[in-house]
Design brief:
The protein has two domains: 297 residues, TIM Barrel (Alpha-Beta Barrel), CATH 3.20.20; 48 residues, no CATH class. α2 crosses α16, α6 packs parallel to α8 and α8 packs parallel to α10. By secondary structure, the protein is an alpha/beta fold. The protein has 17 helices and twelve strands. The strands form three sheets. An eight-stranded parallel beta sheet has the order 7-6-5-4-3-2-9-8. A two-stranded antiparallel sheet has the order 1-12.
Length: 390
């Protein structure tokens, strides 16, 4: 699979200086963690689940979570498990189309071993499991079950813990909770693909819900938790993990309170001009999503949980490395080979300091491998337009 693989070859050639690389579910964990991109959630109860997975793969979705937890009612769990097994078996019988990285979000640790056994050969379609409300106390059973399931099916399986417990939200227990999670994740490091943030549950602990005019970072309590999670689990010294961005809950058109913050200039200067695309983004509340993605990146998060297919193109378009980022990253790493120092960027608009910026540059080049590098004259607006109208 590859990001933007659903676009025609000539379109990719026009947009990308360096095209996204091809990878599969056997790739290195660092590549897969970066490649998650917009991880689309779907209830496991959907009767057309197999067809939905194929359709979304054809639209550029690279990772999906099939949910047996909060997305379905308690009484639906047995039927959802049966449907999941049947639908994945159907997919396994027709391996012609490349499928996304598939994960199952479970409720209990026993579901991991049970579902893997019930899936049989179809378990080969799974990249791993999503573990909800993860703490040091609750997580051990899930990770032990994952280890057992991996041994039983003979294939590598990853875990993606979701940090969303009240203990994380509450100030007096947050520190101990985070360091406990860090200890457990380090013990099972080779099985941890990424750490996900459950902002909806964190808000729930205080009866909060952000509006589509606000990002997660406008909610002080949530912003504080995100900062602390990245502080402990997102370090660039080799001890950290990929931390993914929180879900954007909105997709219908709603009455706006604040003016949109999406500038006209990038759309007016696109080739061809894309003012109609800007209006479409605003009408579907995607300008708030775009702002939050930018803030995710600024705060050390990569990728995003998505609950609607309309969110995927924005996440992926903003994940493409710009020509300026690529130029800076290459210069920084080249300067690092010479022992460090400071140099003016090729764009003559910033200072590139080799030693402090090295970790950033390495992350940029990994993202460039997975999402590609845009041509110098290609803007986000053009990338998004191509994704929406392939």
């Amino acid at each position: 699979m590859r990001h933007f693989g659903h676009l025609a070859e000539d379109v990719r050639g026009r947009l990308f200086l360096r095209q996204p690389a091809v990878f599969d579910r056997t790739a290195d964990a660092a590549v897969l963690a970066t490649a998650l991109g917009a991880t689309l959630y779907s209830p496991a109860t959907r009767p057309t689940l197999a067809a939905d997975i194929r359709k979304q793969a054809g639209r550029g979705v690279v990772s999906m979570v099939l949910c047996l937890e909060d997305a379905i009612a308690d009484h639906e769990v047995p039927a959802a498990e049966g449907n999941l097994v049947a639908q994945l078996a159907e997919l396994a019988e027709d391996p012609g189309q490349e499928l996304p990285l598939l994960f199952v979000r479970v409720r209990a640790a026993a579901q991991i071993t049970d579902l893997t056994a019930r899936l049989g050969a179809a378990a080969a379609l799974l990249t791993g499991f999503v573990v909800p409300k993860f703490t040091e106390e609750s997580g051990t059973a899930f990770l032990e079950a994952l280890t057992e399931a991996e041994a039983a099916c003979g294939r590598r399986l990853f875990a993606m813990p979701v940090l969303e417990s009240p203990e994380l939200a509450h100030l007096e227990s947050r520190r101990d909770t985070l360091f406990g999670v860090a200890r457990l994740l380090e013990k099972y490091r080779e099985r941890i693909l990424a750490v996900r943030l459950g902002v909806t549950d964190l808000c729930s602990a205080y009866g909060l819900r952000r509006s589509p005019d606000l990002t997660a970072y406008d909610v002080a309590l949530v912003a504080g938790v995100i900062g602390d999670v990245v502080n402990v689990l997102g370090r660039a010294d080799g001890s950290g993990f990929t931390v993914t961005g929180p879900v954007w809950e909105y997709f219908p058109v709603q009455e706006r309170i604040f003016k949109p913050q999406l500038r006209r200039t990038p759309f007016a200067e696109a080739h061809p001009p894309a003012e109609g695309l800007r209006q479409q983004i605003i009408e579907h509340d995607l300008d708030g999503l775009i702002r939050e993605i930018e803030l995710d990146r600024a705060n050390g998060l990569l990728g995003k949980t998505c609950i609607h297919p309309s969110h995927v193109p924005a996440v992926h378009a903003l994940s493409v490395v710009t020509h300026e980022e690529y130029s800076d990253a290459q210069d920084i790493l080249q300067q690092s080979l010479g022992g460090g120092g400071v140099l003016r960027s090729a764009y003559t608009n910033k200072m590139n300091e080799a030693k402090p910026h090295r970790a950033w540059a390495e992350r940029v080049l990994l993202r460039a491998e997975v999402f590609g590098v845009a041509r110098e004259e290609v803007s986000f607006a053009e990338l998004l337009s191509a994704c929406l109208c392939p």
